[in-house]
Write a structure and sequence with these properties.
Blueprint (H helix, E strand, L loop, with lengths): L9 E5 L3 H13 L6 E4 L2 H9 L11 E5 L8 H10 L7 E6 L4 H9 L4 E4 L3 H18 L5 H9 L1
Parallel strand pairs: 1-2, 1-3, 3-4, 4-5
Amino acid sequence: MSSNGAKTVSILLVEDDKIDQKAFLRALDKLKIGNPIRIASDGVEAWELMSGQSGDERMQRPYMIILDINMPRMNGIELLQKIRADKDLRDSIVFVLTTSNDEQDKFEAFNLNVAGYMLKTDMGNSFFKAVELVDNYWRVVEFPQSSAVAKRQAV
């Protein structure tokens, strides 16, 4: 999976369930997707990785976020609110992959401009379909280069 330019798209999986993390990684492997991946166990850890507050280097863009809703410390909706309020991160591409079939969660997620909301219904198949969808998304959709957008915004 790579963007339409030469850059590789990194993946940030925000998921607190270790079994779901492994299922997602297996789906990547099965589809032969070798993109760099980082895993955060909750919204706090994800925020630290994206904003450079983790002590590690800030995640390099372009990247996409695969986000669970139900997590400890900071849930997916709270993280989405922080991302959309941040001038440097608000254009992040976020897909929700969750067990929550709650209409309010769906409404809030789409109100915060997620690219898609997918349910984890059966572990292996759901993750495979989600990874396949996201892979196709990056192959088809055109994105501006980060540096070009930053230059235009500075003018």
